[in-house]
Amino acid sequence: MYRCLGELLAPARAAGSLSGGEPCSAAAAALLSGNGPGRRPCGGGGAPLLPPAATSRRRYSQAADPEDDPNFFRMVEGFFDRGASIVEDKLVEGLRTRESPEEKRHRVRGILRIIKPCNHVLSVSFPIKRDNGEWEVIDGYRAQHSQHRTPCKGGIRYSTEVSVDEVKALASLMTYKCAVVDVPFGGAKAGVKINPRNYTDNELEKITRRFTIELAKKSFIGPGIDVPAPDMSTGEREMSWIADTYANTIGHYDINAHACVTGKPISQGGIHGRISATGRGVFHGIENFINEASYMSLLGMTPGFGDKTFAIQGFGNVGLHSMRYLHRYGAKCVAIGEKDGAIWNPDGLDPKELEDYKLQHGSILTYPKAQALDCHILEADCDILIPAASEKQLTRSNAHKVKAKIIAEGANGPTTPEADKIFLERNIMVIPDLYLNAGGVTVSYFEWLKNLNHVSYGRLTFKYERDSNYHLLMSVQESLERKFGKHGGTIPIVPTAEFQDRISGASEKDIVHSGLAYTMERSARQIMRTAMKYNLGLDLRTAAYVNAIEKVFKVYNEAGLTFT
After folding, report:
1. 276 phi and psi, to 5 degrees?
2. Whole-angstrom distance, CA of residue 246 vs CA of residue 228
3. Are 424 and 55 a contacting pair, CB within 8 Å?
4. Residue 179's closest CA among 205, 156, 153?
5. Contact at 8 Å (CB) between 107 and 95?
6. pLDDT 10s digit of each residue in the chain, 564 long?
7. What is the helix (H) or strand (E) element at residue 334, kind and residue range?
8. 417 in Cβ contact with 75 (< 8 Å)
9. Do the Cβ atoms of 110 and 137 come closer than 8 Å?
10. Catalytic residues, which ones?
11. d(CA 317, CA 48)
12. Are the C-beta atoms of residues 282 and 388 closer than 8 Å to each other?
């Protein structure tokens, strides 16, 4: 069954617009769009512009430079400023202190200034001896944006594009991302400036272990201090090396040492479902908005996945698992793009076949059941576009060429402020990165808790739940036999297929998937409420930033300012 936001909100909040008996009414759509009509379905081009009244509230900070290649960290700060300008008055009104209105304003602006910058940035250089006997100096960075909650949390990426600016921007995004999905971590990020394809496995292990030591020497890693995770070009293997290095050095006497990093293999304290977590989170995030009838009416679309097509930029971990889950629930993938090109098939691409082909041949470009895409993947004709590669892909120069009606940001920072503004004017829904790709950090939180508790989810209750379910079926059978007798023999009780699947109790993977789905749904509801409260229309990014700012502000304000 499809949902409508009007069914969720209190009548008082939506008086005159979302009346109780008429969910998904035209009034609901008008309120969401900020006075704008629903968008017509488009076959191959853009959508009509919203009227001026619909965009009058959408002020934008000066985050984009004239060339629309903004400094990544400044770009994130610009989005933060946009949210802060909207929520500042509410934060002032919400203070329950004996301060004067002017002092309250100073307090709010002061805390907002505290939230914005990166608290710590570590830059390291260290040598390694390569297998051929040559020596090389490796550069690495770790940024800790906020310690309002500890530990800090954020991935480690291996890329030649890594820079101080990039890790600062990604660390700040992690702070807001954790706040949006109510995960009690501060934001952090790390990067090692290498192309992992140019190194052997032995060399990569040397680099990973040495970088871990450099982080440990400066207290930039630890179960209660800073907890890395996989990111671009890193995975279970690298996280296992990090955990082993930490546990055998600085964490030798710490029983929780393996909680110093998440995304580990199961044998090293990892958790079922972590590998697919970000992609699964992308699916759940899209699901929560595509099943919302009032939002879909704005886009001229029907709710649900059944008739939807999608294209993905990036066939890595996030892109692959996003494709799997969307395909499983009825959507059709018509195009996939990678660095070396893109392919398309209007009849749909099968994720399993495509994954197997890439593993065997190293590329998707020669996949026999598809043909080369004659335009950029971001301009593919589809309903849902999922940029799952790197930052600043959607810019002022290509935003007007995008044909999708929904942009789901699987990557971090794929949309520049100028492009974001164009999408709002074109009535295109952008589901923002700080919400949509939070599945990874959510399941990392579950893994971290598992490591601290030293017991896997479900182990203590698994048999009890299974026995309870069987006793329930027996109780129903006995009640029916007492009522109707056993004249024709015992009355069979046949559980449904759904109940049969759950009769043995919840496994760790079941618990992880359920917790992730609930987290993404609850966060989506919060974003929708905020968007309506501030009349933001389709500006979901600003709504998400407002939610994050409110939560982080509350922590700083109630904790008090120490040593000032």
Report:
1. -90, 5
2. 12
3. yes
4. 153
5. yes
6. 444 444 443 333 334 333 333 344 444 444 444 444 333 333 444 433 333 333 333 333 333 334 667 788 888 998 999 999 999 889 988 888 888 888 888 889 999 999 999 999 999 999 999 999 999 999 999 999 999 999 999 999 999 999 999 999 999 999 999 999 999 999 999 999 999 999 999 999 999 999 999 999 999 999 999 999 999 899 999 999 999 999 999 989 999 999 999 999 999 999 998 888 999 999 999 999 999 998 999 988 999 898 899 999 988 889 899 999 999 998 999 999 988 888 888 888 999 998 998 888 888 888 888 888 878 889 888 999 999 988 888 999 899 999 999 999 999 989 999 999 999 999 999 999 999 999 999 999 999 999 999 988 877 777 778 788 778 888 888 888 787 777 777 778 888 877 777 777 778 888 999 999 999 999 999 999 999 999 998 999 999 999 999 999 999 988 887 655
7. strand 332-338
8. yes
9. no
10. 189
11. 35
12. yes
- Measured in degrees and rounded to the nearest 5, phi and psi for residue 57 equal -90, -10
Q: pTM of the entire structure?
A: 0.83
Task: Give how far Cα 80 sits from Cα of 64, 188, 408, 410, 522, Å.
Answer: 13, 17, 19, 19, 22
Largest pairwise CA distance in the chain:
87
User: DSSP character for 140?
Assistant: E
